[in-house]
Amino acid sequence: MAPFSPRLLAAAAAAALIGVLATASSAVARGETAAYTRVFSFGDSLTDTGNALHLPSTGGGGPASRPPYGETFFRRPTGRASDGRLAVDFVVEALRLRHPAPYLAGGETAAEFRHGVNFAVGGSTSLPPEFYEGRGLKPFVPVSLANQTVWFDKVLQILGSSDHGRRKIMASSLFIVGEIGVNDYLVSLIGNLTVGEVKTSVVPHIVAAIRSAVNEVIAAGATTVVVPGMIPLGCEPQLLALYQGGGGDAGDYDAKSGCMTRLNGLAEHHNRELNRAIAELRGAHPGASVAYADLYRAVTDIVVSPGRYGFRDRPLAACCGGGAGAYNFNMTAFCGASGSTACADPSAYVSWDGVHFTEAANRHIACAVLKGRPYDDGGAPPAAATPTTWPTAAEAGRSRIGCS
Ligand SMILES: *[C@@H]1O[C@H](CO)[C@@H](O)[C@H](O)[C@H]1NC(C)=O
Ligand SMILES: *[C@@H]1O[C@H](CO)[C@@H](O)[C@H](O)[C@H]1NC(C)=O
Ligand SMILES: *[C@@H]1O[C@H](CO)[C@@H](O)[C@H](O)[C@H]1NC(C)=O
Question: Atom 11 of ligand 2 has which residue's CA nearest to it?
Fold first, then answer.
């Protein structure tokens, strides 16, 4: 596929929304310094630290393989869809762990995987291609959450030959399952499903896929699983630009944030349903700790009060892109393509390329994840009493990455 074809850009952009931070803790630590020994993470481009680069369908390319991606921190493109670190990078720093190995980067040895594995792939959906084919829609990449859990099973076999040994490894690991689902929503909305149709016919399947992945890792012995929720879709420059001029099904704009209320309503609906599933998981697995990470609030807090968090006062414009106008987003001049330019100070921006966050926003998201803020949108029951050391480990980690 030609680099920067609109379809690839869409895929790359979508892929970018991947994942995030996961993290949680295992019951292992009880009073010891290292609460966790490694991280296993699942998700999309918000969490991908180098997997999509190795998909044959991207030809080793995609925008995140080119400058100016990585310019702030790594000083070179690494496959991360940001100017620097992702939230998962900040979380492992905060917990003083090694960066998990991108699963598709090669290796496939116990030595490689012993320090944790990142299964997140830019562009990944939570639902498999069959779900979309039946509806006349096309996912961006041939990877869904089911592929990632199959890879996890393979890693499990490589890591330990006895069931007891494997369960011990899982119990000392932090699992981060998500963010995943953004690409499902992009595929559906770009394919002209209405927000109402997405709510009734897509959301329940996405939440079921996430629940099934969490069940699977707990069955393998995981004792701490962090499940990040949906980001505020209505604040994404890509979607703001897509619906600009009244097309589509965006609905009104929120007066305080400038975000699209109907798309944010979809994200809030996702998060309510996800929390319902998390409550059920807690009931079914009293020996495991399942934490919710509120990415929605982490991002909307900045968008509503950018100055308070050190961001500029136009938080809905992308730092890097080729668009004129309020959002600086143009799909045919996507960040890194000719016709695009990057802002001088990415740390003042929330959105890096219109789809993915800047390193500065990712740090803030990581801080929020490490805060373990309880879900407070009403309805969801409080967390069950669990044996987790996550709150203590997370709080200690916050100070290490400069959270206020
Ligand atoms: C994901 O799983 C599907 C169905 O098993 C398979 O066809 C596809 O090739 C897998 N993708 C990758 C990248 O392995
Ligand atoms: C969605 O609708 C727009 C505007 O009506 C149209 O141009 C576009 O081709 C449609 N996309 C799909 C995938 O049907
Ligand atoms: C988007 O970028 C392309 C390529 O640089 C350019 O031809 C087009 O005019 C731009 N569209 C808008 C609306 O700015």
Answer: 191
